[in-house]
Structure formats: C-alpha cells, structure tokens
Write a structure and sequence with these properties.
The protein is an alpha+beta fold. The chain contains 8 helices and 12 strands. Strand 3 and strand 4 form a beta hairpin.
C-alpha cells in the first residue's frame, strides 16, 4: 500500500484514508489488467503464422488500447502492402526490426491526430508484434519458395491452383470478366531431343521473360507445365481476350539463338472466358481443350472456346 502525503488541514477521517487506499488499489488493478491483456494478445499473435491473419488480429486487438481506423504493413517496396480498415488523414508510422533484420513498416490511420500518449502506447504494442511477425515472414518466404518455378522464376502450377479459385471469387464479387490463356511452345520436345536440355532450359527462360514483359500489370503469369504457360487475364472479356492472346502468342514467334544453335520458335494457345458457375477446374479444362484444338489445327495458332455459343471459335 502506498503512503500519500496529505495536507495538514486535510480531514484525516477513516473514510478519507480508505478512499486514498481504494484509488491506489484501483490504479494498480487497472495497470495489472492492462499488462495481462497485453500478454494475452501477445500469446494470440504467436499462434498466428499466416501474415494476413496475424496483422488482422493485431489490427482488431489493438483497438482496445488506442482507437484507430486502419492499419497497413509494408514489407519491402516490391511487395504489396497488407491493409485493413480505412486510410485516414493522420498517420502514425513505426519501423520494425529484429537485430539487423528490417522487418518492414507498420502504419496506423485515423481521422484525428495521434497524441504523444497514444503513440507511446502504439510503440509498446508494436514491440510485441516483432517476434511473431518475424516468424510469419519466414513462413511466408518458405511458402513462396514452393510457389515459384526455379527455372523461370515465374509462379508455378501449384501457385496457379491456389490463385485461380481466389481470382474467380474476386471477379464474381466485383462483377468483372476474366479469361484464361494457356500457351504452349510448339515441338519443344523435339528441340530438347535435337539440341539438348541446356538449350531447352534457356529457351524456357527466354520465353518466360518475354511473356512476363508482354502482359499487363493486371494479368498473372504462371509456368504451368514443362513447356506450357498460363496467363490469367483479369477484367478481360471473351473478345478482348482473343485480341490480347494473339498478340501475346506472336511475341514467341521469333528466331531463337543460343551460341551456335538457331531455332525457329512458335506457339499454340487456347483461351476461354469465365462463365457463371465455373469452377477453377472447369475453366482450366476448357482452356486445355482450346489449346489442344490449336495443336490439332496445325500449331502456331490460337483457338478460343466460347462456351456460351457452344462452339470452337477460330481466330
């Protein structure tokens, strides 16, 4: 129990003494509750491995300490920011690091300025985020490594299988069209057999870079199979997708040279548009069917499968 200095004229009755003790005990209890709540949140954060779930938990739970309308986390400049809530006029930013490792920058937003008291409280809370965040970022890097093709540096088939259902959901939620393109290098197995895998690998890397530089920022490209690439065309309906797909296909139609080896490249492509009730599997199956028809038509061409009209469209 704390001893308070009282003015000599103060009426030192039992009730007043009890009031002083009660206030002190109340303060200690509030402080203890605060510390226990912080520990509880810290334990919750340590149980979150997924980066998005971790930051969402932190966004929600810190509201009981400092009111804010939004939170964003930027790992590095070339990574998209993770954002929750609403972006407001006033911002409080903190740089997070663990040892020599820079984890990123976290920002809090609200419509009124953050007083120094709130900023100090946020700083204390952010300190409890560092270790769970470092663990989550390590996990994210490990997961990302399984989704990237070592040869081309593009996202791989597993990444497409994970991304396509999500992109379909977003397209429907936003009432936006979406198309899927599958592109295959013609007679690639013959190139491998004639010139060796080193030439074949270099061709794949060259084609991957060429395609990645030819698509729009809104599109997503994947190394789908040994010599097949998939491109998700967001916000693109059937007719527009055919025009874009043919332009993309033609960038592969070049003379490739590797040291003293020259190879004339061409590509076949199949495209289809997302329709009502499509699953990711059905969309992929239809694009594969369109690609197969392009190969049957003699290769070096594009076929688009129009489900709504129930016929194969010749481009």
């Amino acid at each position: 129990m704390s001893v308070h200095y009282l003015h000599p004229d103060f009426d030192r009755t039992e009730s007043n003494v009890r009031l002083g003790v009660t206030s002190n005990e109340s303060f200690k209890k509030t402080r203890l509750d605060h510390q226990l709540r912080v520990l509880e949140i810290t334990e919750m954060l340590h149980r979150k491995v997924d980066l998005s779930l971790l930051l969402e938990c932190f966004f929600i739970e810190t509201q009981s300490f400092v009111r804010h309308d939004g939170l964003s986390f930027q790992q590095r400049s070339h990574f998209p920011a993770v954002f929750f809530g609403s972006q407001r006029q006033h911002t409080s930013r903190f740089e997070l690091s663990l040892g020599d490792d820079l984890l990123g920058e976290i920002s809090f937003y609200r419509s009124t300025a953050f007083p120094s008291r709130d900023e100090r409280e946020l700083e204390r809370l952010v300190a409890h985020l560092c270790y769970p965040l470092a663990k989550s970022l390590d996990h994210q890097a490990q997961v990302q490594a399984t989704l990237v093709d070592d040869l081309t540096g593009l996202n791989n088939r597993l990444a497409l299988e994970q991304s396509l259902p999500r992109e379909i959901t977003l397209a429907r939620r936003n009432d936006m069209p979406m198309s899927l393109l599958l592109l295959d290098i013609d007679r690639f197995s013959e190139v491998n057999a004639s010139h060796g895998e080193q030439v074949g690998d270099d061709i794949l890397r060259t084609v991957a870079t060429t395609l990645a530089n030819s698509i729009r920022k809104s599109d997503m490209i994947f190394h789908y199979d040994s010599d097949t690439f998939a491109i998700v065309m967001n916000g693109t309906e059937y007719n527009g997708a055919k025009v874009l797909a043919e332009r993309i296909r033609k960038v592969v139609d070049v003379c490739y040279q590797y040291r003293n080896v020259q190879v004339m490249l061409s590509a076949s492509a199949g495209i289809t548009e997302l329709v009502e009730n499509d699953t990711a599997g059905e969309l992929l199956e239809r694009a594969s069917e369109a690609l197969l028809n392009a190969k049957k038509a003699g290769r070096n061409t594009l076929r688009a499968l129009d489900v709504q009209q129930s016929h194969l469209s010749l481009v």
